[in-house]
Amino acid sequence: MFRSLMFLMISMTMVLSSCGGKKDKEAKDDEPGKDWSAKPLAATEGAIGAIKFTVDLPAGFKVDNQGDVNISWRPDMDDYFSEPSVQVLLASTPAKTPEEFVSNAMLDKNDEVIKSEKTADGFLLEYATKNKGILRVSVQKAAGEKALVCNASQAKQGGVPNFEATRAWLGKICGSLKLK
Predict the structure, then answer these.
(1) Rounded distance, CA 156 to CA 166, Å?
(2) Helical H runs in the chain?
(3) CB under 8 Å to 167, separation ≥6 — which residues?
(4) Which residue, 90, 98, 101, 99, is CA-closest to 144?
(5) What is the DSSP letter of 164?
(6) What is the pLDDT of residues 58-96, one digit of tens each?
(7) Spatial strand order in the sheet of 178-179
(8) What is the structure's pLDDT at 29?
(9) Nearest 5°: phi and psi at 58?
(10) What Rg do the C-alpha atoms of the chain give, in angstroms?
Protein backbone atom coordinates (compact mmCIF):
# COMPACT_ATOMS: atom_id res chain seq x y z
CA MET A 1 0.00 0.00 0.00
CA PHE A 2 2.76 2.45 0.95
CA ARG A 3 4.63 1.72 -2.28
CA SER A 4 1.49 2.29 -4.34
CA LEU A 5 0.88 5.60 -2.60
CA MET A 6 4.51 6.68 -3.16
CA PHE A 7 4.32 5.65 -6.82
CA LEU A 8 1.09 7.67 -7.23
CA MET A 9 2.65 10.75 -5.57
CA ILE A 10 5.80 10.55 -7.74
CA SER A 11 3.69 10.07 -10.88
CA MET A 12 1.51 13.07 -10.03
CA THR A 13 4.58 15.20 -9.35
CA MET A 14 6.06 14.26 -12.72
CA VAL A 15 2.80 15.00 -14.53
CA LEU A 16 2.41 18.36 -12.83
CA SER A 17 6.06 19.23 -13.47
CA SER A 18 5.78 18.45 -17.16
CA CYS A 19 2.63 20.55 -17.43
CA GLY A 20 4.35 23.39 -15.60
CA GLY A 21 7.32 23.15 -17.95
CA LYS A 22 5.07 23.46 -20.96
CA LYS A 23 3.32 26.45 -19.45
CA ASP A 24 6.70 28.08 -18.72
CA LYS A 25 7.78 27.58 -22.35
CA GLU A 26 4.53 29.11 -23.63
CA ALA A 27 4.95 32.04 -21.25
CA LYS A 28 8.51 32.57 -22.54
CA ASP A 29 7.26 32.56 -26.17
CA ASP A 30 4.76 35.27 -25.25
CA GLU A 31 7.27 37.31 -23.25
CA PRO A 32 7.50 40.95 -24.37
CA GLY A 33 10.64 42.02 -26.21
CA LYS A 34 11.38 38.82 -28.06
CA ASP A 35 13.77 38.52 -30.99
CA TRP A 36 12.16 39.76 -34.23
CA SER A 37 15.32 39.66 -36.36
CA ALA A 38 14.27 36.64 -38.43
CA LYS A 39 10.78 37.94 -39.26
CA PRO A 40 10.32 38.40 -43.01
CA LEU A 41 9.49 41.84 -44.37
CA ALA A 42 7.04 42.96 -47.07
CA ALA A 43 6.55 46.30 -48.83
CA THR A 44 3.97 48.62 -47.26
CA GLU A 45 2.77 51.78 -48.98
CA GLY A 46 2.38 55.12 -47.23
CA ALA A 47 2.16 58.84 -47.88
CA ILE A 48 3.11 61.98 -46.02
CA GLY A 49 1.50 64.93 -47.73
CA ALA A 50 2.22 64.60 -51.44
CA ILE A 51 5.23 62.31 -50.90
CA LYS A 52 4.36 58.66 -51.51
CA PHE A 53 6.71 55.92 -50.38
CA THR A 54 7.12 52.24 -49.60
CA VAL A 55 8.90 50.70 -46.64
CA ASP A 56 9.29 47.01 -45.79
CA LEU A 57 7.57 45.96 -42.55
CA PRO A 58 6.96 42.63 -40.83
CA ALA A 59 3.51 41.05 -40.99
CA GLY A 60 1.34 41.96 -38.03
CA PHE A 61 2.37 45.62 -37.85
CA LYS A 62 -0.39 48.24 -37.84
CA VAL A 63 -0.50 52.01 -38.13
CA ASP A 64 -0.02 53.42 -34.65
CA ASN A 65 -0.19 57.10 -35.51
CA GLN A 66 -0.54 59.15 -38.67
CA GLY A 67 -0.16 62.91 -38.76
CA ASP A 68 0.53 65.59 -41.34
CA VAL A 69 4.29 65.03 -41.19
CA ASN A 70 4.69 61.45 -39.96
CA ILE A 71 3.32 57.92 -39.83
CA SER A 72 4.32 55.19 -37.40
CA TRP A 73 3.73 51.46 -37.11
CA ARG A 74 3.92 48.99 -34.27
CA PRO A 75 3.07 45.31 -33.71
CA ASP A 76 -0.63 44.55 -33.37
CA MET A 77 -0.43 43.30 -29.78
CA ASP A 78 -1.53 44.51 -26.35
CA ASP A 79 1.93 44.82 -24.77
CA TYR A 80 4.09 46.31 -27.53
CA PHE A 81 6.42 48.50 -25.42
CA SER A 82 9.46 46.21 -25.82
CA GLU A 83 8.75 45.36 -29.45
CA PRO A 84 10.19 47.07 -32.54
CA SER A 85 8.51 50.17 -33.97
CA VAL A 86 8.95 52.12 -37.19
CA GLN A 87 8.30 55.75 -38.05
CA VAL A 88 8.62 57.64 -41.33
CA LEU A 89 8.59 61.42 -41.10
CA LEU A 90 9.11 64.47 -43.23
CA ALA A 91 12.58 65.94 -42.72
CA SER A 92 11.80 69.63 -42.17
CA THR A 93 15.48 70.50 -42.58
CA PRO A 94 17.14 67.65 -44.48
CA ALA A 95 20.73 66.91 -43.51
CA LYS A 96 23.46 67.63 -46.04
CA THR A 97 26.22 65.60 -44.36
CA PRO A 98 26.44 62.53 -42.11
CA GLU A 99 27.55 64.79 -39.24
CA GLU A 100 24.50 66.99 -39.70
CA PHE A 101 22.28 63.89 -39.77
CA VAL A 102 23.76 62.78 -36.43
CA SER A 103 23.21 66.29 -35.03
CA ASN A 104 19.58 66.29 -36.23
CA ALA A 105 18.99 63.02 -34.36
CA MET A 106 19.57 64.85 -31.05
CA LEU A 107 21.30 61.93 -29.36
CA ASP A 108 21.15 61.55 -25.61
CA LYS A 109 24.35 61.56 -23.54
CA ASN A 110 23.88 57.80 -22.99
CA ASP A 111 23.73 57.09 -26.74
CA GLU A 112 26.70 55.72 -28.64
CA VAL A 113 26.96 55.97 -32.41
CA ILE A 114 27.57 52.54 -33.92
CA LYS A 115 27.61 53.64 -37.55
CA SER A 116 27.16 56.92 -39.41
CA GLU A 117 27.64 57.16 -43.15
CA LYS A 118 26.57 58.62 -46.45
CA THR A 119 24.69 56.14 -48.63
CA ALA A 120 24.04 56.20 -52.36
CA ASP A 121 20.72 57.98 -51.78
CA GLY A 122 20.98 59.59 -48.35
CA PHE A 123 22.37 58.92 -44.88
CA LEU A 124 22.43 56.08 -42.35
CA LEU A 125 22.77 56.37 -38.57
CA GLU A 126 22.81 53.46 -36.11
CA TYR A 127 23.04 54.13 -32.39
CA ALA A 128 22.26 52.53 -29.04
CA THR A 129 22.39 53.24 -25.35
CA LYS A 130 25.58 52.11 -23.62
CA ASN A 131 23.77 49.15 -22.00
CA LYS A 132 22.20 48.16 -25.37
CA GLY A 133 18.72 48.55 -23.89
CA ILE A 134 17.64 50.87 -26.73
CA LEU A 135 18.68 50.41 -30.35
CA ARG A 136 17.78 52.84 -33.15
CA VAL A 137 18.44 52.96 -36.88
CA SER A 138 17.69 56.11 -38.89
CA VAL A 139 17.85 56.60 -42.65
CA GLN A 140 17.26 59.81 -44.62
CA LYS A 141 16.34 59.64 -48.31
CA ALA A 142 15.54 62.57 -50.59
CA ALA A 143 13.06 63.16 -53.42
CA GLY A 144 13.92 66.45 -55.09
CA GLU A 145 13.78 69.17 -52.43
CA LYS A 146 11.90 67.00 -49.93
CA ALA A 147 13.31 64.25 -47.76
CA LEU A 148 11.91 61.55 -45.52
CA VAL A 149 13.52 59.95 -42.49
CA CYS A 150 12.82 56.39 -41.38
CA ASN A 151 13.42 55.56 -37.71
CA ALA A 152 13.25 51.94 -36.55
CA SER A 153 13.90 51.01 -32.95
CA GLN A 154 13.55 48.43 -30.23
CA ALA A 155 13.98 48.80 -26.49
CA LYS A 156 14.09 46.18 -23.77
CA GLN A 157 15.18 46.28 -20.18
CA GLY A 158 18.21 44.02 -19.89
CA GLY A 159 19.18 44.60 -23.53
CA VAL A 160 17.72 44.28 -27.00
CA PRO A 161 17.57 40.57 -27.90
CA ASN A 162 20.02 39.26 -30.50
CA PHE A 163 21.49 42.75 -30.72
CA GLU A 164 23.59 42.48 -33.92
CA ALA A 165 20.92 40.59 -35.87
CA THR A 166 18.25 43.05 -34.68
CA ARG A 167 20.49 45.94 -35.70
CA ALA A 168 20.83 44.49 -39.22
CA TRP A 169 17.07 43.80 -39.38
CA LEU A 170 16.15 47.35 -38.35
CA GLY A 171 18.66 48.62 -40.92
CA LYS A 172 16.99 46.49 -43.58
CA ILE A 173 13.61 48.03 -42.69
CA CYS A 174 14.77 51.64 -42.97
CA GLY A 175 17.10 50.89 -45.85
CA SER A 176 14.05 49.70 -47.81
CA LEU A 177 12.47 53.17 -47.75
CA LYS A 178 11.73 54.19 -51.35
CA LEU A 179 10.22 57.54 -52.30
CA LYS A 180 7.94 57.53 -55.31
Answers:
(1) 12
(2) 2-29, 98-104, 163-175
(3) 114, 126, 128, 135, 137
(4) 90
(5) H
(6) 999 999 999 999 999 999 998 888 999 999 999 989 999
(7) 41-48, 51-58, 178-179
(8) 52
(9) -75, 155
(10) 22
